[in-house]
Design goal:
The complex is a heterodimer of chains A (299) and B (223). Chain A contains seven helices and 16 strands. Chain A is of the alpha+beta class. Chain A starts with a strand and ends with a strand. In chain B, strands 1-2-3-4-5-6-7-8-9-11-10 form an eleven-stranded mixed sheet, covered by helices on one side. Chain B has a domain of 115 residues. Chain B contains two helices and eleven strands, in the order E-H-E-E-E-E-E-E-E-E-E-H-E. The chains are: A alpha+beta (299), B alpha/beta (223).
Chain lengths: 299, 223
């Protein structure tokens, strides 16, 4: 069992309040996943020519300034930097491949959580309440966010095994369920050049979507292809730079409920997580149909 | 009328009060999708939930009437023994699962596995039901005024299924059966009880072909 939540704002007036609306959604799912929690928030784009990267090191006293200086010297331009608990958020004037290469070389002890124009992923072990407080989620702003509270089944309780998983620019995925064909699929995707950092099944689903998007498919088509290629139980919530999507497997053992108003689209494993959203009393509420892709986009 | 505000009281306090009551009406405010509301009741009380209910609402109900004015989550009225449970909105998966008796009325739709392993309950869904409804249904009746999803009545025993709309597909060993006068009479009575706006003649009946669960003496040497 795990809990997943997503909030995609349609009304820009709410962007300053994304964290305030989103944090209680995540906290309410503690009962479904007390082991670890994480979230992806999509906010303002990195400056032109730069990309955002979210990095993690378990030591709170880790000296990020050393890495920042090394990256500045490598790319010959300033690197914006802020620390949030165990995570550091950088905006680096580089492309994705050069940045990933530089990070692997300069700081192999650091874990890359996300890379993209707009995405920032943060995740840690602990209850959702602890994770929300640790990262100050209530103060966050942005256009959309997805989150996950984990009750581990498939691999160890660790920061690396927490969701969301991101394997490509701005894409991330949270998952309630378990995949049964992830080992073979991981092998095939590695051959296609997708990199994996854990043995986790959900990372394979994220890698699969990255691969499909690289082939030129849209998010909707990539998920539809996933219905054929991913075997197992899943409710997915997926974020991209401009979009948000939800998909349940055709058997639909894992729950999901959605709400839509003129101001937002929200999804959660259970209605309880939606109960505090503004205007929920008059929102359109529904359970996503099995095997049907639901997607929204700002683009 | 007793009013319990779940903004102030806990679900445990609500259920304890309901278990102690012998009759009377209880109105529950601020339910906000909380789980296990009004479970294990065993007296002719009436409970009105003024909002959405979470998982297992009215589970194991005996004698009580539970009305939900919003939607209900997974496992509504699971293992109900008797009484009446009615939801004005939609019900999530596995509504009426394993229930032995009583009447469950869903004014909206029910999602997958409605009436899974039902053992004697009567379920009336005014909207449609999702896939694998009445899976392994042993006894009782499932009445669907709308459509039924894939694999209706898969591996069914002796539950009776009545569907007014389209059936996406029938599950293993589930077949259409003749609608006899006693079925029409039972439907007329039940639709009226459920306040459903439908005529018995509009329904088709489905049930077990009895090929899957019956022991065939001819095959005895195979085992």
């Amino acid at each position: 069992m795990c809990g997943i939540v997503g909030l995609f704002l349609k009304n820009a007036d709410y962007e300053q309040e994304l964290g305030r609306l989103f944090a209680p959604m995540l906290e309410t799912m503690c009962g479904r996943g007390p082991d670890s929690a994480g979230f992806a928030v999509y906010n303002e784009s990195a400056p032109d020519g730069a990309i955002k990267v979210s990095l993690q090191h378990p030591d709170m006293t880790y000296d990020w300034a050393v890495l920042v200086a090394a990256l500045e010297s490598r790319f010959g331009a300033p690197v914006a930097f802020s620390q949030n608990s165990t995570h550091a958020l950088l905006a680096v004037p580089a492309d994705e491949a050069a940045l990933r290469f530089a990070l692997a070389e300069l700081a192999p002890e650091v874990t890359t959580m996300s890379v993209g124009r707009r995405i920032q992923i943060m995740k840690e072990t602990g209850t959702p309440q602890e994770v929300v407080a640790r990262f100050g989620v209530r103060e966050m702003t942005g256009t959309h966010a997805i989150g996950h509270t984990r009750m581990a089944t498939e691999s160890a309780v660790s920061t690396a095994g927490s969701h969301p998983f991101s394997t490509g620019m701005d894409l991330c995925l949270v998952h309630n369920g378990s995949l049964s064909n992830h080992n073979r699929l991981r092998m095939n995707l590695r051959r296609e050049g997708i990199e994996f950092r854990t043995e986790n099944d959900t990372e394979v689903a994220a890698g699969y979507l990255t691969w499909r998007l690289r082939q030129g498919l849209g998010l909707q088509q990539a998920l539809e292809a996933g219905l054929k290629d991913l075997d197992g139980f899943y409710t997915f919530a997926v974020g991209t730079a401009e979009g948000f999507a939800v998909l349940r497997d055709p058997i639909a053992c894992k729950p999901a409920v959605m709400a839509e108003t003129d101001d937002y689209v929200a999804m959660a494993s259970e209605y309880r997580s939606l109960a505090g959203l503004p205007g929920i009393e008059s929102a359109r509420l529904w359970e996503p149909e099995p095997g049907v892709v639901y997607s929204w986009s700002h683009a | 009328m007793n009013v319990v505000d779940l903004g102030a009281a806990t679900v445990r306090e609500l259920n304890a009060a309901l278990h102690a009551a012998e009759d009377g009406t209880w109105r529950v405010l601020n339910s906000r999708g909380a789980h296990a509301l009004a479970v294990g009741l065993n007296a002719p009380v009436r409970v009105e939930i003024a909002g959405h209910a979470g998982y297992y609402c009215a589970g194991m109900n005996q004698l009580a009437t539970v009305m939900i004015e919003g939607n209900a989550g997974t496992g509504l009225a699971e293992n109900m023994m008797s009484g009446l449970v009615r939801v004005k909105g939609n019900a999530s998966q596995s509504a009426g699962a394993t229930a032995h008796g009583g009447l469950l009325v869903i004014d909206g739709d029910a999602s997958a596995r409605c009436g899974i392993s039902m053992k004697g309950i009567d379920i009336v869904v005014k909207g449609s039901v999702g896939h694998l409804s009445a899976f392994m249904g042993q006894a009782g009746n499932l009445v669907v005024c709308g459509d039924a999803g894939d694999a209706l009545g898969d591996s069914i025993y002796e539950a009776r299924l009545f569907v007014r709309g389209k059936v996406a597909s029938l599950g293993a060993d589930c077949v259409e059966k003749e609608m006899r006068p006693e079925h029409l009479a039972w439907l007329a009575e039940t639709l009226e009880k459920a306040e459903a706006d439908a005529q018995p003649e509009e329904f088709r009946r489905y049930g077990s072909a009895r090929n899957l669960y019956q022991f065939k003496i001819d095959h005895a040497s195979s085992y």
